[in-house]
Structures are given as structure tokens and as C-alpha cells.
Amino acid sequence: MENYRSQSPFSRFCLLPLIVVFTLQMDLSAQTSEKDADAAFIRKIYDRALTDGRCYPWLEHLSLRIGHRLSGSAGAEKAVQWTRSMLDTLALDSVWLQPVMVPHWVRGDAEQVRVSGSKKYGTFNLNALALGGSVGTPAGGVSAEVVEVKSWDELDKLNERGLRGKIVFYNRPMDPTKIRTFEAYGGSVDQRAYGASRAAKYGAVAVLVRSMTLRLDDFPHTGSLRYDSTFTLIPAAAISTMAAEKLSQVLKEEGKVTVFMKMNCQTLPDAPSYNVIGEIRGSERPGDVILVGGHLDSWDAGHGAHDDGAGCMQSMDVLRIFKRLGYRPRHTIRCVLFMNEENGLRGGKKYAEEAERKGEFHLAAIESDAGGFTPRGFSFDGDEAVFGKFFEKVSAYEPLLEPYGLKLTKGGSGADIGPLKGMKGLLSGYSPDSQRYFDLHHSADDTFDKVNKRELELGTASMAALVYLLDKYGL
Amino acid sequence: MENYRSQSPFSRFCLLPLIVVFTLQMDLSAQTSEKDADAAFIRKIYDRALTDGRCYPWLEHLSLRIGHRLSGSAGAEKAVQWTRSMLDTLALDSVWLQPVMVPHWVRGDAEQVRVSGSKKYGTFNLNALALGGSVGTPAGGVSAEVVEVKSWDELDKLNERGLRGKIVFYNRPMDPTKIRTFEAYGGSVDQRAYGASRAAKYGAVAVLVRSMTLRLDDFPHTGSLRYDSTFTLIPAAAISTMAAEKLSQVLKEEGKVTVFMKMNCQTLPDAPSYNVIGEIRGSERPGDVILVGGHLDSWDAGHGAHDDGAGCMQSMDVLRIFKRLGYRPRHTIRCVLFMNEENGLRGGKKYAEEAERKGEFHLAAIESDAGGFTPRGFSFDGDEAVFGKFFEKVSAYEPLLEPYGLKLTKGGSGADIGPLKGMKGLLSGYSPDSQRYFDLHHSADDTFDKVNKRELELGTASMAALVYLLDKYGL
Questions:
Q1: Closest by alpha carbon to B290, among B414, B84, B471, B416?
Q2: Which residues of chain A does B214 touch, with a Cβ-Cβ cutoff of 8 Å?
Q3: What is the pLDDT of residues B337-348, one digit of tens each?
Q4: CB pair distance less than 8 Å for A404 and B179
Q5: Fewer C-beta within 10 Å: chain A N or C terminus?
Q6: Which residue from A376, A435, A454 is facing B454, i.e. has the nearest CB?
Q7: Do A260 and A275 lie in a common domain?
Q8: Is A409 on the interface with B (CB under 8 A)?
Q9: A404 neighbourhood in chain B, CB within 8 Å
């Protein structure tokens, strides 16, 4: 300070800027040490997840001991009870079940779908799974000529004249040139969702849909359809991509092909079920919630390991890791395992209703529902009124997350957390590598052995790191 | 232009800046349209790779019809002839075999490694593979007490007193907290490389090394060792991580454990082999080469599918894609399938010698030798004198490659292209996701079914995109 006295008038004139610079520097070095502290804590999260993770053995139990768990099934009930009991071991502040009535669709006997009387190939089976929510065929099955279409235009041109009494075969493949496979899915899944009613409109009697996968193999991939009740509800099934190729080939070679379908799936009355919830209460703002979750239900094939056992076990492990690290959050950190994402979204809707009713503000909600693959980042969404500001704030975290291979982008979030959007918090979807997801999605091949331990654990750590930053800095 | 006449003197004064701005704009819009053209061509490369790729069926053939191909083996010879015949179908400007003498080590009979006479567990086998280059045991095997160490310090402290006549068991695991698994590998592989001679220095009679993998399973992972000829050459084998855990546990429980090892591996005289090379000659600078390659040899377990059948098939497919797209490169684009990366690097050394002799400047060399997983980017290396400038230039490509998930970083390149470094071109290593690589690396589990078609194809496209930019803009 002594030097001030010997300064020239010009220097004295410059004192203010000096002070400003000094203050700025202090501020910057405070910021730097905060950043170092954040980096160190995030490092701890990853170390813990990679050396002492539970998501993988938990997923093993869920997959191999409980298995698939369609809403309303015994598997879903077991999964609810078991995940609740696991959350109970974590010394959280609360663990509870949130009741919700869910659709109860049952597949019944194994589907029979076969080409009959081909000149060249005789009679042969097409590997098929009824679409979720589909009605069954008449008890004796249905037999009809098949008409292949690749677009709605083709369908509309064929019209009642070409389609009455026929089975419509939707065979537009997912586009392999999309780098993000979710885009390819988005470009084809309309056939599965709307195909039945749009065919019924023209008098078709049933529908076959090429499975939503980029792989050529013999697994049918199911998924939900949406009936338009204006038209007759006709049965619909997905066939494997190999079956689709074969059927298309026979149609090309022989012109006319007859398929027999028999399915006795049906929708029973709604059944009681639950969202499974656990939380660490916030020390400063307990009414503000940061949610991390996935969906506990799955289709009734395989283990539902990637879809979405992975996301559920990761979400539970995020809370466990915070507890193990002795982290005391400012906001309430809540893990939610939603029921019924696959065929109704009842869990997500119920959860949002209840949150609204209790006046719980959801500062942020992160869903992991894109498989347990290597992390690539997070995509963010939110109500227009607030999203720009939020995204700018969150983008500033990127340098802390980049060393872990994470990018932050605008985009979709998750189906279950969608109903929270009106609450004007931040929504986020965890985005792992998407290349292998649709190979397995909704098929008997979505089994535990397809999940890599480290990839799953890295996802857990990535989610925990984002939760930590959101909790520390708010929005 | 008419408006100029009515301009105020001040405006006229500003004409020069206007002209500068105008010229800049023209320049910028020329740059923009170049960028659009580049983006469009890169898109074409990806479209082709993802809809009409050959790398996957080629890898299927290499894996299932030829199988593993250690230098000097019949498999290696078959792989040379078959890849040459495949390159011959691509209408390249030249395809040739470059002779190179390679080490010829043979494993002999299946290794016998067993714990004998444990009080609690009796006698039991440890799944093992001799390390590449290891000498065999005496014909009747060797039986000795085991001493476990996790660091060189421990080894040095045990010294001759603690190690003479013993079998040293190196059991330092790869560090699971490293995000990039290659770092974890780098932190442990010294045990495999130097363990035998450092133990022999103290009179040990044999060595067991924990397999270099982050996974806990029962596959032993082999790999080369480096003897220091100052000391006795003693036999060395990798044991699976499960075997390592078991052995460690028994040592802890019983204090003293005896292991019996019998291996009759040996090194035969050097054998003749080849690098397999194909090229599209450059239209403007045929003497300047852009190389894309992998190594054709593999360890003698599994299929060598990820290591490095993947990199070889991708490199061949890069040239095929350029031909299919009718691309006429300015520089010579050359695919090189190096022989003997795994245990000698003779192919890489020979190739660099020959290039030097012929005065071929290697503008750039890209090696794919980190598995056929989803692309994450490229790392770049080069001679100090030129690297800074090169990396700056290459970094400018990033916006064109980012939509495909690629990042460009400084780092290592590839073992086979290392000997080209003195030529002062750019070296690059293709960097796919590394999480699953060491699960399979050098083990019987590195089989074709572990390779995902899209992930492999995306790698091919990524390499082709980088080659295209390097070819168009030079360095």
C-alpha cells in the first residue's frame, strides 16, 4: 500500500481501474477455486461410481431374478416391492410408493403368424409379437391376403378398393443414414403407432409392421399402438426385420401372399400399481426438487435391461452415491421410478399431478431412458418462458463435464418427466451413445448380458455430476 | 453502382473499407460454399458407409473363415492372401504385397497352470495364456511357491532373498477410475512387459501376471513381453482376473501357495510375411501419400475381431468408398494392412524404411487400432517441428466433423505408423469409444459377435471423412 504515495497524478487517476481489476481478480480466483472444488467433487462422484457402484449388480437382480415387468403384471409388482426395499437400505430421508392405476394389457398365448401356401416356400412362420394394446384376432385366427406399403401415400392410394378384407404390411425401414438412431426411430415409428387404425379406416382386417430396428435379425420388437376409436379396432403385430424382408420378397416373387394370424391378447380392467420414490431432503430449499429417474415398467420380452432397468438402477445409485459421499444437498434430490411409461404414461401423469397438488416446485428433472450405454451428454428442454435463461446457465457447466465425454445440447428430455414441463423448471434427458439401443429395444434380446458394467456406471456418475451442479448453483 | 454518385464526401472517404468488406464477403461466401460442399461430400461418405458398407461382411469373413492370425502362422498367411484378393476387386490403381520377415513364436500345447495342494481348495487350475514371446517351462513343468506383488517397489524390497526360486505373481489391477481405458492400460501393462526380466534378476523361476482388463471374468489376456537378455529368460503367463483374485485370496488365507506351470511355447526362426497395400494414385501429387491402415496380425486367441480386424476392414472400405463415390484424390490414398504389430512391429518398420527409400512423403497417416466401437474422434501427433502448425490447420475441420460425434485432440497415433514420424507428416489415431475394448483385447473373447455393424461402419466413414479433408486441403 505504501507505493500509492509515490504515484504520479496519472497513476492516481488510474486507481479506480486498479481497484476494479483487483476486485475482479479476487472474484476470478474465487471462481477458479470454486471450479476446482466442483471438479474435485465431480471426480469423487466418478471414482465412487466406478469403484463402488451398485447399479450393475442391482440391474442383474432386476433382470435375472425379476425379469420383464409390463404394467399390471406380477413382474411389475415384484419390481415395485424390490426397488422399494433397496431404497429402504440407503438411509434416505423418505421412501414411498405413489399409487397409480395402470392399463393392464396381456399378451396371452404366443402369437401365430405364418405365410400359408406360398408356391415356392410353402407354409412358414414369421417371428412376431403383438403390438402393446392390440386386440386379439377372432378365436380361430384371421387369414387374408397381404398388401405391402411403405408410406401413408401408398396406403391412401390403395384405399378401400385395395385394402378391404386385407392384412396391411407396413414395411418402411428405419433410415440407417441417421447418425442418431432416435431420429431414425422417429421417422418410422408412426407406422407402429397409427398403422392399425389407418388401415382399419379402409376396411383392412389386421396389420403387420416391420420391427423398429436397424439390425437385420429375427427378433420382433413390440411397442404400443394408438387406436383411433372412430374405426374398427383390428389386431396388429410387429414382425422381425428378417421376416419382413422375406415376406416382401415372396410378395415380389409371387404377387399374392396369404397370411394367417392368431393372437389372443386383450386389455383387462386397469390395475393398481405404484411409482417408487425415494429422496434426500434439501437442507436449504426442501420444497424445490431435483428429480432423477427412469421407468420401472418394461415390455413383456427379454429383461427390459436397457429399457429401462438401466435408467432406474442408475437413478437409485445417484442417491446412494450422494449418501456415501456425505453430500448434503441444498435442494431435495429425489429418485423416481415411474410406472407405465411404455403403454399409458400413467405414472408420469400421476406424479406431476401430485407434485402440483403439493406445490412442489421441480427445479429440474433428469430422465435416463435411452439405455445404459457410454455417456455422450444431456439434452435439455423446458417451458419457453424460462428455457433460454436456464440453458445458458447450464451450458456454463460444460467445461466441468467435458473431461467425461459429455456435451450439453438442446433437445428432448423424457416421456415420464414431460408432464412436469408446465411447472417451468428444467427438463433433461440423459443421452448415452445411441448406436446399439434399437438393436435391443422392446425385444426379447434386451437382456442383462447386453449391458456393460462400466458404461452403466459412467451413466450413473454423469447424472450425479449434473445433479450436483444443479443443486449447488440452482437455476 | 449508381448510388455512388450521390454519396457525400464522407461516404466517398469510406469507399475503401466498403470495397474491403465487399471482397471479404465474397471470400467468406466462397468459403461458405466450400464448407457446404465439404459437408455434402462428408454426408455422402456416411450415407455410403451406412447403406453400402463392406467392412462388416469382410470382418465376418476374416473372423469366421480365417480366424486369428499371429505373425508367421497359417492364419496370417491366409489373411494376407485373402485381403490382397479383396483389394484386387476394388479397381484400385495398385495392390501389392510388401515382403517382411517376422518373428515366429508358437504357443504349443495349452498352458497348464494350477495351484497344487491348497489346504482349503485342494488342486485347481488357473485360466492362463503364455505371454507372447515367452520361453517355455522345462519339459516337466516348474513348481514353486508364489509371491504376490503389486508394485516394483515391493519386488525390489523382496529382492533375491524373497524371490530366488519363486514364481512372482504381478497383481496390480488396471485403474477403473480412468475414464479413458487406454490410460488404465498404460498404468498396468509394465507388469506384463517387464515383469519377467525384473523377476529373473532376483532369481525367480517364472512369472504370472494378472490379465490387462477391467472386467472380472475368466478369460486370460495375452500380449507381448520384453526380455532383458542380461537376465535368464523365464516363462511368463497371464492369468484371468478371476484366477488372479482367487490366487490372491488363497495366498491371504494360507500364506504359502505352490503353483505348477507347464508351457511349451517357443520362438522359431523368423518367417517370411507381408504388409498388404492398395492405393488410389493422386491426380496432382502422386508422391504425397495419405495412409489409412490397421494391423492384420492378431494374437492367437479369439478372432482378433476388434484387435485389429476392425481397423483393417475399415481401412480397405475407405478406399472402396472413394472409388464408389468416383472421388479422384489429389494425393495418393493408400491402405496399408501392417503385419506384426503385436509382437515385433516389423511391418511398420519395414514400411517406413521402404517409404524413405522411395522418397514417398507421407503427408498424413491414420491408424485404426483401438477397436470397432462408436467413433469419438481422432488424436493427432507429429514431429515437433511441424506439429503445431498442422494441428491448428486440422482443428479447423472440427465443425464439419462434430455432427458425427467427432472431436480432434492431441495425443498418440498408432504403433505401426510411429516409424513414419521422422518424415514430418501428420500422424493420427482413430479414437472410438474405449469402454469395452479391454474387455476383449488379446483374449479368446475378441470375437466377431462383439462387433456392432453400425459402430464399425461409422468408424469407416469417420476415417474417410478425415482423409477427404486432408486430401482436399493438404497441410
A1: B471
A2: 454
A3: 999 999 999 999
A4: yes
A5: N
A6: A435
A7: no
A8: no
A9: 179
A370/A424 same-domain check: yes
| A179 in contact with B, Cβ within 8 Å | yes
Q: Show the cell assigned to A107.
A: 399378451
Q: Which of A264, A283, A317 is the endpoint of a domain?
A: A264
Lateral strand order in the sheet of B426-432: B94-106, B266-280, B331-338, B285-295, B361-367, B426-432, B375-382, B407-410
Judge if the upstream peptide bond of residue A308 is cis by omega within 30 degrees of 0: yes
List the single best residue of B374, B407, B435 to mutate versus A (max A Cβ within 10 A).
B435
Taking chain B (475 residues) in consecutive chunks of 10 residues, what is each chunk's mean pLDDT? Answer: 38 50 63 91 98 98 98 98 98 98 98 96 97 98 98 98 98 98 98 98 98 98 98 98 98 97 98 98 98 98 98 98 98 98 98 97 98 98 96 97 97 97 97 98 98 98 98 95
Catalytic residues of B: 341
Query: Which of B357, B358, B336 shows the shortest CA–CA distance to B347?
Result: B336
- Residues of chain A in contact with residue B404, where contact means CB-CB under 8 angstroms, are 179
Phi/psi at B15 (nearest 5 deg)?
A: -60, -45
Residues of A marked active site are found at 341
Do A280 and A414 share a structural domain?
yes
Total domains in the fold of chain B: 2
Helix axes B384-395, B453-473, angle to 10 degrees: 110
Q: Looking at chain A, how many residues does it have?
A: 475
**Nearest CA of chain A to the CA of B403: how many Å?**
8
Q: What is the spatial distance between Cα A171 and Cα A239, in angstroms, rounded to a whole number?
A: 10
- Cα of B109 to nearest chain A Cα, Å: 32
Cβ(A100)–Cβ(A274) below 8 Å: yes
C-alpha cell of B23?
Answer: 471482397
- Residue A390 inside a domain? The answer is yes
Q: What is the pLDDT of residue A13?
A: 47
Question: How far apart are alpha carbons B36 and B24 in whole angstroms?
Answer: 18
Q: Are residues B288 and B302 in the same domain?
A: yes
Q: Would residue A115 count as lying in a domain?
A: yes
Same domain, A203 and A282: no
A458/B46 CB distance under 8 A: no
Assess B175–A contact: CB distance below 8 Å, yes or no: no
Q: Which residue of B has its CA nearest to A181?
A: B454
CATH number at residue A179: 3.50.30.30
Cell of B222: 495375452
A454 touches chain B (CB under 8 A): yes
C-alpha B250/C-alpha B245 separation (Å) is 9
Assess contact for B123 and B115: CB atoms under 8 A.
yes
Bridge-based pairing of strands B426-432 and B112-118 is unpaired
Q: Please check whether residue B454 touches A, CB under 8 A.
A: yes
Q: Which domain holds residue A176?
A: 108-264
Residue A63 resides in a domain: yes
What is the C-alpha to C-alpha distance for residues A349 and A340, in angstroms, rounded to an integer?
Answer: 10
Q: Does A435 touch chain B (CB under 8 A)?
A: yes
Domain final residue, candidates B264, B288, B323: B264
The C-alpha cell at B326 is 468416383
d(CA B140, CA B138): 5
One domain for residues A72 and A122: no
Amino acid (1-letter code) at residue A308: D
Q: Say if the ipTM goes beyond 0.90.
A: yes
Query: Looking at the structure, do residues B206 and B217 belong to the same domain, yes or no?
Result: yes
- Cα–Cα distance for residue pair B428/B417, rounded to 1 Å: 9
Chain B residues touching A181 at Cβ < 8 A = 454
Residue of A47, A179, A185 to mutate, interface with B, max B Cβ within 10 Å: A179
**Residues present in chain B in total:** 475
Asked if the structure places residue B154 within a domain, the reply is yes
Tell me: do A117 and A50 sit in the same domain. Answer: no
Under a CB-based contact definition with an 8 Å cutoff, are residues B219 and B444 in contact?
Answer: yes
Condensed to tens digits (0 to 9), the pLDDT of residues B420-451 reads: 999 999 999 999 999 999 999 999 999 999 99
